[in-house]
């Protein structure tokens, strides 16, 4: 909470009125979200921002979707820890951002480092914001977005888009009737090893992989074996593990000669040869 307050009032460039308005919206909304979840209610959330707006700090700026309970700001403790890890690592060449959302890490890193980023975001609406924010920061020559879900084979799969956020997740055919049809889309899927080959990327130049795929971590890892087996010792992996079998995912990544360090609850930092940037 302290970091969140600091971010709102000291890190972003906006009027004091805007900051207070944004802060109040967050404070009011989250108790209602919790109540709705616990008691299975549908209390409408208050939105003080009726239109999309642009947030800017000293390094970057981006478009934020209005009327969304899941905002796009780096505003939680775990994301602050992510940022600290990202910004203190030097000499990167290629960053694979798997589950890139609207850009956060790619734009932030490319602005700070001499690095090329390949972003993978399957949600069509979120992908639209991702491209907008890349253009807004004039980084279209260094950040390359792809509207793909990373998995094992090239096919299309059902994907649920939450109507009040940019969050989304895969759903099975048997569960289709549980979701509104207008919130379900097909997404194109490709495995990461095929992507690397098709785009003539040098595996030794891939220095960072970020994985944030809402429970499908094992699926992604299983189909980037060539990268993990042939990568340089410089490769770092930052992975949010929401799978029910967290230890299995950790063991699978470590089987490729990685060590790891917890960042925050579900978030882990993997590195090779006992090397860790302090």
UniProtKB/TrEMBL annotation:
**Nucleotide-binding listed as a keyword:** no
InterPro entries, sorted: FkbM_mtfrase (IPR006342), SAM-dependent_MTase (IPR052514), SAM-dependent_MTases_sf (IPR029063)
UniProt-listed Pfam families? Methyltransf_21
- Biological process (GO) annotations? methylation
Q: Tell me the ranges covered by the Methyltransferase FkbM domain, including all copies.
A: 98-247
According to the UniProt entry, its GO molecular function terms are: methyltransferase activity
Q: Does the keyword Transferase apply?
A: yes
Where does the source fall among the domains of life? Bacteria
Arranged from A to Z, the UniProt key words for this protein are: Methyltransferase, Transferase
PANTHER family to which the protein is assigned, alphabetical: METHYLTRANSFERASE, FKBM FAMILY PROTEIN, SLL1173 PROTEIN
What name goes with this protein?
A: FkbM family methyltransferase
